[in-house]
Amino acid sequence: MTKIIDCSMGEGGGSIVRISVALAALTKTSLKLINIRANRSNPGLRAQHLEAINALQQLSGFSVEGAKIGSKMVIISEGNNPKNDALVNIRTAGSISLVSQAVSYYSFIQKRDIRLTIKGGATHGKWAPSIEYLENVTHSLLKLMNKKINIETNKFGFFPKGGAETILRYDRCENPTPLILTDKGELERIKVYSTASISLRNRKVAERQLKSFIKNAAPDVEITPIINYVESISPGSGLTVVNQYSSGSSKGTFVPGEKNLSAEEVGEICCSIWKRMKQRTGAIDVYATDQLIVPMALTNSKSEITVDEISNHTKTNIELIKKFFQKAIVIKKEKDHYSIMMKNL
């Protein structure tokens, strides 16, 4: 029986495609996606969505129809001949983090190691987590669930040309542990990753972003600054801040550099977002929340987390989970955060 997913549901973005295809591959379910990004200004599949499908096809061996740029309908059918390695090429500045996310879901309960090589795309782009956020927040939280993912970044990529090159290794994980993270604990350390292309070194862009953040944040705990100038085919920068807590949780934020923003403004914007996050009492930040919903559904025992916000992405991901699994999902509004509890029905 073919499962039909209307991709105009909820926030209607590309995450519906990536998650649905990953779960279909994982559960060996035939799938028909319709109305893909139908309400967006550039509807249909974009490069990063297409390459996520491509990676999952290589790893799972499923057959696919309609997977091309601009497609509003894709059909996935169970196949054979799965592989442990996948290679994709993003010919735009599409986010490598979002392609990786789809593979991380597919790999989550696999009894084999998986490797994904991504050529092209952006390590630091708009509307997606940076490579530093992915490694130090998302993957750090997944490690608490016994899922280990390693990133090797050989080239960095920025808007508009991308050009990154990364290798991600997903360790086998036969028995992921549920995630119980309801108290963020005390803030112990702050890591600030200020990354910029070598072409911006003479203007000290990375140093200026970092200095601006520290000046405006005035943190009261130890701060670890990491300045990194990297080779890239187009100039760019990004500032990622990661809070590390006594509970083992990590929360973070990321702001990419843009042509119309000075390095100082990037630091100021990042600080403003960081201050709001720092004051929130959830153990998980708004960005990581929607990324953890699927892994929580792939464990057999109850998971429970407290989160800063319930975004439209999170709501949509919860609705997708219900289409694939029999789960009880309870959301409660606490004083200044939300709790999400998930368990088998």
Give a verbal description of the structure.
This protein has helices at 15-27, 47-60, 96-107, 131-143, 205-217, 263-279, 286-297, 312-324; strands at residues 3-6, 31-34, 63-65, 74-77, 85-95, 114-122, 149-155, 165-170, 180-181, 187-197, 222-230, 237-245, 250-256, 303-307, 327-333, 338-344. The chain has 345 residues and is α/β, with parallel strands linked by helices. It has two domains: 3-174, RNA 3'-terminal phosphate cyclase domain (UDP-n-acetylglucosamine1-carboxyvinyl-transferase, Chain, Alpha-beta prism); 185-279, Dihydrodipicolinate Reductase, domain 2. The strands form four sheets. It has a four-stranded mixed sheet, covered by helices on one side. Strands 5-6-8-7 form a four-stranded mixed sheet. Helix 1 (15-27) packs parallel to helix 3 (96-107), helix 2 (47-60) runs parallel beside helix 3 and helix 4 packs across helix 7. The longest helix is centred in the last third of the chain and has 17 residues, at 263-279. The chain is globular and about 60 Å long.
Q: Which properties best describe this structure?
A:
alpha/beta, UDP-n-acetylglucosamine1-carboxyvinyl-transferase, Chain, 4-stranded mixed sheet, 16 strands, globular
Separate helix tally = 8
Biggest sheet strand order reads 1-2-4-3
Task: Give the low-confidence spans.
Answer: none
**What share of residues are in beta strands?**
25-35%
- In the CATH hierarchy, what is the architecture of the largest domain at level 2? Alpha-beta prism
